[in-house]
UniProtKB/TrEMBL annotation:
Signal peptide: none
Species for this entry: Mya arenaria (Soft-shell clam)
Entry's localization field: Membrane
Predominant localisation class: membrane
Record has Signal as a keyword: yes
Superkingdom of the organism of origin: Eukaryota
Record-linked InterPro entries: Activin_recp, Snake_toxin-like_sf
The Activin types I and II receptor domain, residue ranges: 22-93
Keywords: Membrane, Signal
Transmembrane segments: none
Protein name per its UniProtKB record: Activin types I and II receptor domain-containing protein
Length: 105
């Protein structure tokens, strides 16, 4: 009986770590339409600064390539969003990405 209880507790803890989401500040059009100020992310929060328009939200992809701030040399003449990605609760709330050297691919 003790072994079954241990197994049950272990599985409950494991399931919690898999399904745990983090809350992020959110100012996307979806959040605005639903009158929400936060969203729940599977992996990360983000802040995007594109031409001085700042947007905050959630990322559910496991490997969000935009978080690397990579820019194609073919697109060097276009405005490109500056992104800050983070993995803590509401970590995107008081951050605004500023101009930084992009990694060109």
């Amino acid at each position: 009986m003790a072994h079954m209880l241990y197994t049950y507790n272990y599985l409950q803890a494991y399931r919690h770590t898999i399904t745990r989401k983090i809350r992020c500040a959110c100012s996307t059009l979806d959040c605005y339409a639903e009158r929400r100020k936060f969203c729940e992310a599977d992996t990360q929060c983000y802040v995007e600064n594109l031409s001085s328009v700042v947007t905050r939200g959630c990322i559910d992809d496991k490997t969000p390539i935009l978080c690397d701030n990579r820019k194609s040399t073919k697109l060097a003449h276009l405005d490109f969003p500056l992104l800050y990605c983070c993995k803590e609760e509401f970590c995107n709330r008081r951050v605004v990405p500023t101009e930084q050297p992009c990694k060109y691919i």
